[in-house]
Structure formats: structure tokens, C-alpha cells
Amino acid sequence: MVISDPAKDLRTLLASRRGLIVAAGRDEARLTSMIRLVAGPLRLPIWSWTVAAGLAVSGGRGQPGTTDPAQALAFVSDSNQPGVYVFLDAKPLLDDPVAVRLARELGQRQVPGRTVILTGVGDQVPTDLQPDGVLFRPRPPDRAEIDEMLSRTLAGLQSSGMAIRLDPAQRAELVTSLAGLTLVDAERLVIEYTVSDGLLGAGDLQAIRRAKAELLAVDSPLELIATDVTMANVGGLDHLKAWLVERGRGFEPAARQFGLPMPRGVLLTGVPGTGKSLVAKAIAASWGMALVALDTGRIHGSLVGESEQRMRAALDAVEVMAPVVLWVDEIEKGFRAGGDNDGGVSSRVLGVLLNWLQERPDGIFVVATSNDVSALPPELTRRGRIDEVFFVDLPTPVERTAVVTAHLSARGWDPRAFDVAAVVASTEGYSGAELEAIVVGALYAAYAANSPLTTNFLLTEAHEMVPLSVLRAEDIDALRSWARGRAVRA
Ligand SMILES: Nc1ncnc2c1ncn2[C@@H]1O[C@H](COP(=O)(O)OP(=O)(O)OP(=O)(O)O)[C@@H](O)[C@H]1O
Ligand SMILES: [Mg+2]
Question: With respect to CATH, is domain 2-137 assigned 3.40.50.300?
């Protein structure tokens, strides 16, 4: 049984005479204040237990001999008094069979107004306490709570000499940026970014968003990608670039009033080494959003039944990171893993992802890339899940010029000093990755020969390379014919 919502749900739980509640989450301070909020009006005394101090009624003295969890629970059980008994960091309780038994009995024997709440035992009801414990999962703090914390914290910072320079819109943006964190973590971030330079201003907002994404990605199949790749690093793909510029404007507030829906995402498929992953990175940078990668491979391989839960938890985390670009590289990988021999785990995980892609809130732009579209379920590309499917083909001569030029410049060589046209003419069928390899290979050869880089070194590299489009001609032909009519040329 799972119930989620702030104090309201806790009130319901207490009123429904649940004897044993397991509180998920790590925000002990917030939980304690929620309990005070709910128990106060009901005139229920609040007891708390810690392994260090034992059991004590709030404002009163400790109960001797109750640091041992079994003793403490026996005390609760014998006293038959109404009250809320909060066991903070109750892990030690689980190691003691007597304590476990007593806790279960407290869950079964319902004395009106008596509730035991366990914290710090994880985000599920521990197996040993099922089915007598009920889970209370506090929702992350809402805007009002964050706003209240912010007023308090900013006032404190100001009175110790820090400058706060946020207009109302920026302050509202800060509240959004902190959503999804515990109040403790949110407050810590605000203090950290203010104290570092004595000032909290517009410049800190993006850094705070990033720091939040980092906190949320811990222990999950998500990875926050720091990248300095921009669209200028991507040669060619002009159609895709133009589409992205147009879509990107859909995130502007004015676009809402105009009636535009928020951009949802894009699937990039195509020939290996043509810049799909590169573009995924560049999108985030050009829109000033955080980039988070979801590694579907890391979802699998965990314990049975855990996969779907891990996927769900990861997607929950992504939601509170918004606005964010979610990058699912080689998305087909996740759906092939395990094949038919994994008891249907892959297809259930897939179901979770597909469902989420449909239902997810605005502000999450999904960039999925795929080399093997035949492995993808057709429903993935349904409208509403993503906006467009692009096929990234081998570069045209004009695109090859842009790619070669970009890679020469990136390494400090002026492209005008080379016969780029000659290189382009001898690299028909080469991918962007192969063109990069030619530039790098030529640099090595020139350096070894104690010579500056010349066009000849580039041409030699090009002649020696057999491109994938030759080595795997059939595969690439198959890809291309799939793309015809199904995808837009990038
Ligand atoms: N259009 C391009 N412009 C500039 N560089 C490119 C381009 N395409 C590929 N490259 C170079 O090749 C490298 C590999 O490309 P990338 O990883 O983006 O290819 P991909 O399409 O994702 O390949 P795969 O299908 O194998 O995942 C890039 O890091 C970049 O240096
Ligand atoms: Mg790639």
C-alpha cells in the first residue's frame, strides 16, 4: 500500500489507525515537522527514539533502558497510551528478530491514537515488516514550502552581509530550479552558491539547476553530462539544425500565449559515425539546458523486479530536473537486452518507458538515437512521444567540407591553408567520424615526419582508409531504404 502527499496523507494515515508506518525519504527535519503539524491538533504526545538517547516524549525526559529497540517497542506496547512514536534511523531494529516481531504486532494491534513511525529504513516497507507496515512516502516539497524556506534562508544570508539580487521572475525561477530536492539539500545549495562569492544573482540560477541534476542523478541509471559541444562543432545537418532552432523557441514563455505546445523530442537514426551523439550534446548546450543521459543498459542486470522500479525512479528524477534534455543513446540497446529469455523484464521496462514518453510533463526534451531502427518497437515513434524522426545519412560533399573544416579548426589549423575540396572529392561515402579520423591520422603522420600538416597527409590517410559504407555496404543500404518515407533527412 502506497500513499503519497504531504501532511494531508499523514493525517489520513494516523486517523485510519494504522499501527505501524514506514516513512520513506531522507528529510528527517521535514518529516518531524509534518508529524508535529498533524499530531498537535489531535493532542497526541510525540515520542521519539534514537539509538543514542532511547525513547523520550517531546519536551520530557528519556525513558531509561530504551536504547535497545526491542526494549523501546516493548515499552510502547505495554504502555497502551495514545501517541505518535517516531523511531529515527530505525535500521538497528531490523537486525533484531524480537524487535521485528514487536513492531509487527504493534502494526496489527490497533490501539486508538497509537502509531509507530519508522524512518531511515529505506524507501519500501522492509520485507520482514510486510504486510503489517504501511508506507508513507512524503511528496517532495511543493512550491509554497520551497518559497517559505527561501524567504527564511535569504533573510538570514542578507543579515549576514550577503547580497541577494533576484527580481521576482528570477526568484520564481529559483523556486522551480529547487523543486524535487529535499528542503535540506535545497537550502544547502542556496547557501553554497551565495556564500561562494557573497552574492546570489541571475548568474547562479543555471549553476544551481546543474547542481540539482547532479544530486538527483546519484545512484540511478542517469548521468549528468557536462559538455562544451555546440552546434558550431557539428558539420552539415543543416535541415536538422534549422528544425532545432525553430523548435527551441517553443520553450519561450511567449510561445505558450501563442498556443504552441512544448517541444517533446526527436529520434535520430542513421549511419554510424555521422554525428547523432554529437548533435544530442549540442542541443542541450544551444538551449542552455542540462543534459542527462539515461543508460538503458544499466537498468537491466539488476535484481528481478527491480528493473521496472529503477526505470520509474529514474524517470521521476528526470521530471523534477526539467527543463532538461534527456538523451537516450542507442535506445534499441535497452529493448534488446535479455531478448526473450529474461522473463519479459525488457518488455515491461519498455512499457514503463513508452508510457512515460506519452504521459511525461512538459519541459523534458527527449533525444533518442538509434543505429538499428528495426529493433525498435513501432509505437516508440508515435506522435506525442516525439516530434520528428530524422535520418542522419552519410555527409554530402558540402557537408564533408563543413566537417573537415570544423575538425581542422578545432585542432588549431587554418582550413584555408588546405585544399579541402580535394579531400572532399576523395572521401565519397565517408562518415563524419571517419573524416575526423583522417584529420587526426594525418596529424600523427605529419608530426612523426617532423613536417607541418599538409593536404598530402590528409589525402594519404583518406586513400588508406576503407570506410564503413564499403565494408558494410548492405547494412547501410538497408538503413537507407528503411529511412525512405519514414524519416526526414537531417
Ligand atoms: N557532422 C559531424 N560534424 C563534425 N564531427 C562529426 C560529425 N559526425 C561525426 N563527427 C565526429 O565523429 C565523432 C563520432 O560521432 P558520433 O558519436 O556523434 O556519431 P554517431 O552518429 O553517434 O555514431 P554511432 O551511430 O556509432 O553512435 C564525433 O565525436 C565527431 O568528432
Ligand atoms: Mg552515437
Answer: yes
